[in-house]
C-alpha cells in the first residue's frame, strides 16, 4: 500500500519545506542535475509536487498521492497515478528514470528497482537522490522521525544498501555525487558538490542498465 497519507493531509507543509530550506533544495537540485543525462526521454518516479522534475525539464512523472499530482500538474508535469513497484509503462521506454527522496517511502525497494530496470532502454540511466541513513541529517531524521509525519513512515537506507539493491536489479557503472555538508539551519548559500559519498547528507547515485553488448572502455567519469 502506497505511503501517501501525510502527503494528502499536509501538502502545504511539504511545499513549505522547499521555501524555508531554499538553499538546501537548490543544492540538491544542482547535485541531481550534475548526473542527469542532457538528452533523452525521461520520467520521474515519485514526482511529488514536481519540485525537481519541473526545473530539470522532465515533463512526465508517476505519483500515487492525489494532492501531490495536483500540484505537479500546476507546474506543467504530466503526473500519472501509480506506484513504483508496478510502473504503467512499456518495456525499454525511457532513456533515464529519476527518483528523488522517494526510496524511503517505497513499499518494496527491490520490486521498484526491477521495474525501473524494465522500463529503461539498454544503456539507460537510473538516477536516485536521497538522504543517506548514515549521514548527519539522516541520523537526525531517524532520531526524531516520530515527530515528523513524513519521516515517521519512512525507511532510510545507506549508500551501500542502495547500491546493493541496484546491483540485484541488474544495474552497474555506478557514479556518485554528494552535497549538503552542514545542518539545514546553518545553510545560507548553495552547498558545493563533491564526487563520491561519505561526507554530504544528500547523495545522488547514477546507475546504468546493462546493455546487450558491453564495452570494456572506462567512461570519462571513471564509473565503477
Structure notes:
The chain has 224 residues and is an alpha/beta fold. The chain has a single domain, classed as Vaccinia Virus protein VP39 (Rossmann fold, 3-Layer(aba) Sandwich), CATH 3.40.50. The protein has helices at 5-9, 11-20, 22-35, 53-56, 66-74, 109-119, 136-143, 159-169, and strands at 42-45, 60-62, 78-80, 94-100, 120-131, 171-179, 194-195, 202-209. It has an 8-stranded mixed β-sheet with strand order 3-2-1-4-5-8-6-7, with helices on both faces. Strand 1 (42-45), helix 4 and strand 2 form a beta-alpha-beta unit. The longest helix is centred in the first third of the chain and has 14 residues, at 22-35. The chain starts with a helix and ends in a 15-residue tail after the last strand. The model is unreliable at 214-224 (pLDDT under 50).
Succession of helices and strands: HHHEHEHEEHEHHEEE
By CATH, the superfamily comes out as Vaccinia Virus protein VP39
Shape: globular
CATH class division: Alpha Beta
Residue-averaged pLDDT, rounded?
94
Major beta-sheet overview: 8 strands, mixed
Question: Gyration radius, to the nearest Å?
Answer: 16 Å
Q: How much strand content do the residues show?
A: 15-25%
Give the terminus-to-terminus CA distance. 35 Å
Unreliable runs: 214-224
Amino acid at each position: 500500500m502506497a505511503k501517501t497519507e501525510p502527503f494528502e493531509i499536509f501538502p502545504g507543509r511539504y511545499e513549505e519545506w522547499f521555501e524555508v530550506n531554499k538553499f538546501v533544495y537548490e543544492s540538491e537540485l544542482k547535485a541531481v542535475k550534475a548526473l542527469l543525462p542532457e538528452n533523452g526521454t525521461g520520467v520521474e518516479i515519485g514526482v511529488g509536487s514536481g519540485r525537481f522534475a519541473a526545473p530539470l525539464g522532465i515533463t512526465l512523472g508517476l505519483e500515487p498521492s492525489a494532492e501531490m499530482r495536483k500540484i505537479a500538474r500546476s507546474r506543467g508535469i504530466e503526473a500519472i497515478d501509480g506506484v513504483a513497484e508496478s510502473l504503467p509503462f512499456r518495456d525499454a521506454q525511457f532513456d533515464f528514470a529519476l527518483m528523488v527522496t522517494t526510496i524511503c517511502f517505497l513499499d518494496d525497494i527491490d520490486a521498484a528497482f526491477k521495474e525501473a530496470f524494465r522500463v529503461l532502454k539498454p544503456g539507460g540511466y537510473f538516477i536516485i537522490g536521497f538522504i543517506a541513513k548514515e549521514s548527519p541529517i539522516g541520523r537526525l531524521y531517524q532520531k526524531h522521525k516520530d515527530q515528523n509525519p513524513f519521516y515517521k513512515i519512512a525507511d532510510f537506507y545507506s549508500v551501500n544498501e542502495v547500491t546493493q539493491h541496484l546491483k540485484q536489479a541488474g544495474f552497474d557503472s555506478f557514479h556518485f555525487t554528494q552535497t549538503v555538508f552542514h545542518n539545514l539551519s546553518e545553510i545560507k548559500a548553495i552547498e558545493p558538490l563533491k564526487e563520491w559519498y561519505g561526507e554530504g547528507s544528500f547523495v545522488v547515485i547514477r546507475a546504468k542498465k546493462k546493455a546487450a553488448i558491453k564495452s570494456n572502455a572506462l567512461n570519462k567519469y571513471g564509473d565503477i
